[in-house]
Design brief:
Layout lengths: L3 H7 L1 H25 L4 E5 L2 H18 L2 E4 L3 H4 L10 E7 L5 H12 L3 E6 L5 H5 L2 E4 L12 H18 L2 H7 L2 H10 L14 E6 L3 H16 L2 E6 L16 E5 L6 H13 L3 E6 L8 E2 L9 H19 L18
Parallel strand pairs: 1-2, 1-3, 3-4, 4-5, 6-7, 6-8, 8-9, 9-10
Length: 340
């Protein structure tokens, strides 16, 4: 019997269709509003998987819009109550449930400081939704497995759609129309065989760079929460500054080599680690040599991370089962996490 995680992850393409179709006008209007307000800085407010989706938005915003973007340490608002000049800031909160008090308090705080506030949330009747100037319903549908899948993918797509409309990038806007079809192809790519490579591991690295770090971090989190593996995400540049000392013979490393200017460096890193005897599983463009896991190519490198995580979810579900774990019920976790 299929787990809820598997079923929900497979619903992502259909959920993306609904999201983009129903919100096209909303994104266009929001982009016009942000331009008129001369937004020059973006602050993201999120935790867990949602924070990884927020990092994708931040990176895209810096690349395509030229505005400074950063993740907000929420204690600055909730505990220290620091006074910030936020009049030209867009504060974006990401949450599946919208129930965590610290996200709501931080978004309210930024509104008080003069920021424009936006929430991506899967429950438009949640406290976070009521705290935001504008709300974008993820439209992921009910998600009962503790580990987020389709809501994470719709969060990525939401950030991509916002930047596409805000920047008026014609290539991005055109690519959005075929994104759900691309996800269907990515969903059917076979990654599950890689589960055998990680069946018995206790510690591992997930390595990427650039936009790929958003899904490398999400991958590492899923390996922790549903497989019980102490997985850590690193940039291929950062890993050389200390973590490299841990990579010895048979040490497991999953490399997410997404397209773009980072690709060659990631391929070189994978080759070097294999030469050291590490247990390297390389995900990347399928036409390249020595690729273990194919990442579906849309022709737009910035879309690669979304394709990669769609293919990864069935693999991590299979890995949890191989390790004798229930993918839907990771220990000590619940669907809604409330932090203060």
């Amino acid at each position: 019997m299929r787990s809820q995680l598997f079923i929900e992850a497979h619903q992502s393409p259909e959920r993306v269709v609904s999201h983009l179709k129903q919100h096209a006008k909303l994104y266009a209007e929001l982009a016009d509003q942000l331009k008129s307000r001369k937004i020059s800085q973006l602050i993201t407010i999120a935790r867990g998987s949602s924070d990884h989706a927020a990092s994708y938005l931040s990176y895209l915003s810096m690349m395509k819009l030229g505005i400074v973007a950063t993740s907000m340490p929420m204690s600055i608002a909730t505990l220290h109550r620091a006074q910030l000049n936020a009049k030209s800031v867009l504060a974006v909160a990401y949450s599946q449930s919208g129930q965590s008090p610290d996200l709501t308090l931080t978004l309210q705080y930024f509104a008080q400081q003069g920021a424009t506030t936006l929430a991506f949330v899967n429950d438009t009747q949640s406290p976070l939704s009521f705290a935001a100037d504008r709300v974008i319903d993820l439209l992921a549908g009910p998600e009962t497995s503790v580990a987020a899948t389709k809501s994470f993918i719709t969060q990525l797509v939401g950030g991509l759609s916002l930047v596409s409309h805000w920047s008026q990038d014609e290539i991005f806007l055109s690519g959005l129309s075929s994104l759900s079809n691309a996800l269907e192809y990515a969903r059917e790519l076979e990654w599950s065989h890689a589960a055998d490579r990680f069946k018995s591991v206790q510690n591992m690295f997930v390595v990427s760079r650039g936009l790929g770090m958003s899904v490398a971090s999400e991958t590492a989190l899923k390996l922790k929460e549903i497989c019980g593996i102490q997985a850590e995400a690193f940039s291929s540049a950062e890993v050389k500054h200390g973590p490299m000392a841990l990579i010895g013979h048979h040490f497991p490393v999953l490399v997410m080599a997404t397209s773009g200017p980072e690709l060659q460096g990631l391929l070189d890193f994978a080759t070097h680690m294999r030469e050291r005897g590490a247990n390297v599983v390389l995900a990347g463009p399928p036409k390249l040599p020595n690729i273990d896991l194919p990442i579906f190519q849309t022709g737009i490198p910035e879309f690669d991370p979304i394709m990669a995580i769609q293919s990864f979810y069935p693999m991590v579900e299979a890995l949890a089962r191989l390790r004798g774990l229930d993918p839907d019920k990771p220990p000590h976790l619940s669907k809604v996490t409330q932090t203060h």
